[in-house]
Sequence to fold (260 residues):
Amino acid sequence: MDFNTIISEFKNGITTITINRPTKLNALNKETIKELHYAFKAADTDSKTRVILVTGSGEKAFVAGADISEFSSFDVKEGLKLAAKGHKTLFDFVENLSTPVIAAVNGFALGGGLELAMACHFRVASTNAKMGLPEVSLGVIPGYGGTQRLPQLVGKGRAMEMIMTAGMITADQALDYGLVNHVVTQEELIPFCEGIAKKIMNNSPKAIGEAIKSINAGFKSGVNGYKKEIKGFGKCFGTEDFTEGTTAFLEKRKANFTGN
Fold:
């Protein structure tokens, strides 16, 4: 599929998806959300892709929010539909992918941009990155999972403050809060993420997929994460990756996982 607002590139087991609207600070519009859905779906179903990286083009922004011009005249019904569709198409979709997704936050990650980063499995930020959910300054609340994922990552009190003040935090503050895992220079950002990806690729894709499901289950209302873990643990015993992993361990060699 040809894309207008993103770039998707595959190399050495890693698919890198770059949001490419630099003149708009990579703001999310309907087209971008739709294209991101297709790019993530294609990467997740490609057996050669073992890790997905998502970042923004240029040096200023990961994603500096949503394209406000698209919904400034919406009514209640349209607003409800906008949020529900966004969750289904992109944000919940990314969170529940079985392929690990790393957000390489290379600048401003505001509003929907921070919500996209939080939907990824973890985040690495450049030193110039700034993050925030400014929605209340526009008379609305975060609608793409921000009120749910931010407290899970940084705690209720800090999330309340960030959302109610509509302010931004620095990369170092985000690291201190637990919002990002690492902070590196912008030049180091992609190579650093690729280094983490290579470590991930040493391990079983099947087991990683089950681990993602089990971890996510623990944060979902009405779902017993422990039961999900038990089920996932058992499923691993029926995979070729389990046979290969245990055999390689006993034979004192490096495992060659196929994802089957």
Observations:
- The first helix runs from residue 30 to 45.
- Strands lie at 6-11, 14-19, 51-56, 61-63, 101-105, 108-110, 122-126, 130-132, 168-170, 182-184.
- Residues 75 and 81 are 10 Å apart (CA to CA).
- DSSP finds ten helices and ten strands in the chain.
